[in-house]
Amino acid sequence: MNLKYQLIGSFFNQRTKNECHKVLIANNTYYKNLSEVNKKTFQIRTLVFLWTTNFSSERGFLLTNKMKIIVSSAFVQITFGLKMNTLKKFNAIFIAPRSYSYKNNKALFNGDVNLYTKKVNLSWPAVAHGFEVSDDAMNLTIHEFGHCLIFENASNTYFSKVFEDKEFENWKKQAAIKFQKIKLKQNKVLRSYAGTNLIELFSVALETFFEQPDFFEQHEPALYNSMTKLLKQDPRHKLNPIEK
């Protein structure tokens, strides 16, 4: 663990770190497979995200620290290779006890990123299922945080971009090719929802990138490689996905 996270880690007591580890080892497969050194860094980054994010829920629903740790871990998983520990614009997360709807809209949602309220909304049953089944390329929390990264990258200044411009342009080039394959029904990897637009394609690709990396790389090597460069990690290398 580098000096930065050693220093940050000193602000959290051992009991807090132990609780975080216990939740992560039981619920996050990515974390479970990391080396011991990477586990310690992941713990600290999870706690930083948790304590800098405004979590809330509806009255009568018990929002536990375990839930917050699990949700936070998805963000850390995505950004483990990036120099990004928190969300600046979307740092409010609402956890609903069930699927929800908006006024004047009968559609039920399990998750969304609200651009007006700057809030990430998640249905807890869908969040839990995403971590209970870790190899089906469907993880709601990873999906919605993927949207957050795209939106924050678009609104940040050059010096605070989430992604390097060169790597993001390369990803968009490969994503556009994949988008056309989906439209032509020549798709073997990403589920069809990725054909909605490039924003959805990114989030669906993230889910597959982390939950079915070998299958993804085998069938779409160019797109997969563009994501390893964009995110500065390769989840096929389970012990150390950010190894240079």
Automatic annotation (TrEMBL):
- Which species does this protein come from? Lutibacter agarilyticus
Q: Which SUPFAM superfamilies does the protein's record reference?
A: Metalloproteases ('zincins'), catalytic domain (SSF55486)
Q: Which GO molecular function entries does the Swiss-Prot or TrEMBL record give?
A: aminopeptidase activity; metallopeptidase activity
Entry protein name: Zinc-dependent peptidase
**Which branch of life, at top level?**
Bacteria
User: What GO cellular component entries does it have?
Assistant: cytosol
Please name the Pfam families in this protein's record: Peptidase_M90
Stored InterPro entries: MetalloPept_cat_dom_sf, MtfA_fam, MtfA_N
